[in-house]
Amino acid sequence: MNNKIPKRTFVQKYHLIGWGWTILFVILLGLSSAMTGVDWGTFFTNLNQFFVLVEQMASPAWDYIDIIWQPLLETIQMALIGTTIGTVLAVPFAIIAARNIVKNKVVRSVIRLILNLVRTLPDLLLAALFVAIVGIGPTAGVWTLAVFSFGMVSKLFYEAIETIDEGPLEALRAAGANKMQIIIFAVLPQILNNFVSYFLYTFEINVRASTILGYLGAGGIGVYLQRSLSSFQYAQTGVIVIVIFAVVIIIDGFSNWLREKLV
């Protein structure tokens, strides 16, 4: 007679691990809530106010589109110019930061430190700084988005460069090509699709971010969003949210279409 206890199956082990992580997550959530003073009771008690606001925004004031049309175009222009400036500036920094292009570790470390510092700055802080420098208006928004785009695209770009096929690089080095020729003929053709994808992705993010920058006077449709919320005109807020959502959907669709054409 076999009295051995049967070993747990893979499914049983998977369930035990899953329950263990769930319990750990609940404990950490409880401790974090206690340490930060989160009042869950107040949140659930006033949750009905969220649905009240949603109900008011569910009846958009469509005539408000005539007023926000020009600020919306300004927002898109801000995002496009800022993304373009930041992306163009990010290309040389990303190339220098890539370990398969620049072998000098000190140079790479300095460049990556600069990029890390740029990404550390919140976009709202950047907006406040540029508003103080150039004044209230879209110019502050453009430079804020340019710095933000520079920090994000540079990291994505040098990581993409480090994953390219080394074969063409070695072939050009063996043929006596200089560093610039290697970058132009072996590096850039391999990352062109990634370059376009990162540009459009950053542009999409900047369209949404520019609406928040308007709260600090950085121009665009965000100014009107702040006005509608401050005056409790939630029907106007609903129109602004719908319009921004439509723009983001269009940009995402265009991005997908363009990537398919480039592949």
From TrEMBL:
A GO molecular-function annotation: ABC-type phosphonate transporter activity
The keyword Repeat appears for this protein: no
Annotated ranges, domain ABC transmembrane type-1: 72-255
Keyword Methyltransferase: no
The organism's place on the tree of life at top rank: Bacteria
Keywords: Cell membrane, Membrane, Transmembrane, Transmembrane helix, Transport
Pfam families, A to Z: BPD_transp_1
TM regions (residue ranges): 16-38, 76-98, 110-136, 182-201, 207-225, 237-258
Subcellular location(s) of the protein: Cell membrane
NCBIfam families xrefs: PhnE (TIGR01097)
Family to which the UniProt record says this protein belongs: Belongs to the binding-protein-dependent transport system permease family.
Official protein name in the record: ABC-type phosphate/phosphonate transport system, permease component
